[in-house]
Amino acid sequence: MTVTVVVGNPKPASRTLTAATLVARGLRPDVEPTVIDLVEFGAGLLGWGDPAVTAAVRTVSASELVVFASPTFKATYTGLLKLFLEQFDGGTGLADVLAVPVMLGAGPVHALAPDLLLKPVLVELGATAALPGLYLSDRSFQEDGVIDRYTGRWRPVAGALASSVQAGNHA
């Protein structure tokens, strides 16, 4: 199984990256995820044809499980993540990918953001987003046990769904 983490935080090596990697490892502990920290692409995300961005799009499209993660900015995911998602074809760009939306924020007021704002975009691009989105406190996610509870509950489902999606057995 191939697992990828896509991080849309404008700060390199962010808490968002740490959290998303923990989620990916928790859902698929047998696979070391490939990490794509979008801030590294800089202006390459502003158009089409940048070789590094194109390679990242191919990596994501070929992955079985992708954790898409962003801090909550202005009540939604970052423009950095939006720029990257614009690189995928509508309806098919994320076909055969099990996508998990993860967002971090300072308080619970935006707890539904992963499901209400990020998940619909991933589905529009063709992803299977059957797992609930995950919202984490950017200050306490490493200590509060939320990631362990989430991944413990959803690990068997993620494994079964990823295998089914990759086999073309869309439910």
Task: Tell me what the structure shows.
Helix 1 packs across helix 5 (146-166). The chain has helices at 15-27, 51-61, 79-85, 113-124, 146-166, and strands at residues 3-7, 34-37, 65-71, 98-105, 134-137. It starts with a strand and ends in a 5-residue tail after the last helix. The relative contact order is 0.19. The longest helix has 21 residues, at 146-166. It has five helices and five strands. It is an alpha/beta fold.
Low-pLDDT segments: none
The strands making up the biggest β-sheet line up spatially as: 2-1-3-4-5
Cα end-to-end separation: 19 Å
Task: Look at the structure and give the mean pLDDT.
Answer: 94
- Large-scale geometry: globular
User: Can you identify the CATH class?
Assistant: Alpha Beta
- Major beta sheet, specifics? 5 strands, parallel
Write the layout of secondary structure elements.
Layout: E1 3-7, H1 15-27, E2 34-37, H2 51-61, E3 65-71, H3 79-85, E4 98-105, H4 113-124, E5 134-137, H5 146-166
Helix pairs in contact: 1-5
Concise structural overview:
By secondary structure, the protein is α/β, with parallel strands linked by helices. Helix content is 37%, strand content 16%.
Features:
single chain; 171 residues; alpha/beta; Rossmann fold; five-stranded parallel sheet; 5 helices; 5 strands
